[in-house]
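Support request from a user on the community tier.

User writes: "When I paste my structure tokens into the form, the page sometimes reloads and wipes my input. The last time it worked, I copied everything first. Here is what I submitted, just in case something in the input itself triggers the reload:"
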């Protein structure tokens, strides 16, 4: 992994964007993109929404802010939108619980660890992996490592961002071969610190998502476990604050926000070069690394389905049984679908 990557990943946990997109007043607007004026939820239809500004949590530079500008998806929105960037999922969930952000996407574990400590948020939609053979995250080892299989991790140091989806992948991967966290040494590190530890040999393996995983693999690291079935679910989740969900008018507007986000990413996956450019702009990684990230995890956005809740519950139970959380979480109680039944972002234009 390059030093440039380490510096990029070392950004502050939260960077609030100065630019507000769309809406009324002095909000900055793009010149109009391929998704401009393509919804019926315009200012004329919902003048009451003009009082709102929604903050969207961007998990690690997913390209959403740049894509919003490119596509013009919020150009005709009657509300304002701004973005807040987080290093990884747990602090994003915390900010959602306190109402500092309205909507954001995270991996599989942050909603569970967040609910084990506090409430104030709900899971409102799913990023469904569109290809069960492609993972958003992996467990990787250096190219010259003697570790070949998950079982070989016994007695080894594994770098993980605590409370993240990569934490869940490590737990489930160990469980799949009969190991527990007691059989290894979990080294809890932020993504930036994990990159340094992996690069300098201070950990034997690293459980991490893309782009860091894709970049490391491009530099010669090997994947020994993918975050795919039967080890892990191929999902991410959107969470929203109760402060918006519990207000009927604000909730309706937030559903419009989420629908526009879904359209942004549907367009992005049909235009992978533009998607990669947006990620590269936000993160500072190369276009090549950004394109590998895009290709590694195709997805669509939909309602939270019963099978999603079941998979999350199994993961939550595994965390509790392993002592990684001290309170059992009933996933159904932290789920509140914000999208209509049958919603599928891949059908949006």
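"...and here is what came back when it finally went through:"
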């Amino acid at each position: 992994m390059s030093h440039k990557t380490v510096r990029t990943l070392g950004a502050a946990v939260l960077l609030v964007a100065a630019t507000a997109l769309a809406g009324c007043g002095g909000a900055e607007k793009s010149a109009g993109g391929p998704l401009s004026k393509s919804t019926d939820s315009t200012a004329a239809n919902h003048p009451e929404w003009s009082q709102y500004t929604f903050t969207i949590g961007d998990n690690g530079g997913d390209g959403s802010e740049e894509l919003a500008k490119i596509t013009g998806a919020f150009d005709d929105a009657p509300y304002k939108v701004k973005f807040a960037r987080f290093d990884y999922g747990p602090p994003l969930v915390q900010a959602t619980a306190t109402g500092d952000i309205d909507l954001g996407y995270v991996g599989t574990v942050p909603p569970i660890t967040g609910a084990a400590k506090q409430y104030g948020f709900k899971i409102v939609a799913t990023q469904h992996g569109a290809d069960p053979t492609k993972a958003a995250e992996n467990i990787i080892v250096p190219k010259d490592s003697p570790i070949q299989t998950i079982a070989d991790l016994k007695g080894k140091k594994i770098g993980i961002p605590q409370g993240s989806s990569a934490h869940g992948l490590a737990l489930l991967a160990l469980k799949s071969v009969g190991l527990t966290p007691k059989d290894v040494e979990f080294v809890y590190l932020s993504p930036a610190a994990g990159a340094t530890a992996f690069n300098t040999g201070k950990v034997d393996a690293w459980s991490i998502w893309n782009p860091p995983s894709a970049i490391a693999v491009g530099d010669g690291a090997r994947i020994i476990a993918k975050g795919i079935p039967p080890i892990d679910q191929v999902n991410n989740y959107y969470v929203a604050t109760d402060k918006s969900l519990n207000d009927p008018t604000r909730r309706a507007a937030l559903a419009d926000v989420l629908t526009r986000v879904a359209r942004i990413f549907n367009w992005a996956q049909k235009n992978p070069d533009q998607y990669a450019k947006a990620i590269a702009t936000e993160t500072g990684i190369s276009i090549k690394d950004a394109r590998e990230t895009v290709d590694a995890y195709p997805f669509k956005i939909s309602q939270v389905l019963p099978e999603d809740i079941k998979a999350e519950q199994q993961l939550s139970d595994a965390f509790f049984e392993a002592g990684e959380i001290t309170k059992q979480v009933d996933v159904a109680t932290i789920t509140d679908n914000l999208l209509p039944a049958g919603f599928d972002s891949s059908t949006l234009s």
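Agent notes: The reload is a front-end session timeout and is unrelated to the input. The chain is about 35% helix and 20% strand. Confidence is low (pLDDT under 50) at residues 1-18, 24-30. Escalated to web team.
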